[in-house]
Design brief:
single chain, 141 residues, alpha/beta, Nucleotidyltransferase, domain 5, five-stranded mixed beta sheet, 4 helices, 23% strand
Length: 141
């Protein structure tokens, strides 16, 4: 299974694939003011047969790193230390996924509180639907 995270300073949107990695599903939103992210994600990794975690990496529309890019990179380092080594971590482009998530939720009449997990689902859906001849995304070591 593959997990995808839309990391933010307060909220982390979580999406996961089905057992066959064919469908991306919204999973949850972690509110870091209520629940520390790393223990919650470690518990999720222990309860699911995860092989890969994707983390949306924000870059400004100009292509330059932002403060959120740096914060996300730091979170990925912490995640790497907390998780079992056999679970790979890769970054994926999250450009405009939050905007698209809110648009889709409004169209379906969904709850906008799900925007973070929907953004993660959009990234995950793109990842599993994109043909790859090799590895995609930057591995974080």
């Amino acid at each position: 299974m593959i997990l995808c995270l839309d990391y933010g300073s307060r909220y982390i949107g979580v999406a996961i694939t089905d057992d066959d990695n064919r469908f991306a599903l919204r999973h949850s939103v972690i509110d870091q003011k209520i629940q520390p992210a790393l223990p919650a994600l470690l518990a999720l990794a222990e309860s699911q047969p995860l092989s890969l975690i994707l983390v949306g990496l924000p870059v400004s529309l100009s292509g330059n790193p932002s403060q959120q890019t740096k914060d996300t990179a730091e979170f990925i380092k912490q995640l790497r230390v907390a998780l079992p080594q056999e679970i790979k971590i890769k970054t994926v482009d999250e450009t405009l996924t939050s905007f698209e998530a809110e648009r889709r939720l409004k169209l379906e009449g969904g709850n906008t509180n799900d925007a973070h997990s929907e953004a993660a689902r959009i990234m995950l859906e793109e990842y599993i639907k994109t043909p790859r001849s090799g590895e995609r995304g930057a591995a974080i070591t």
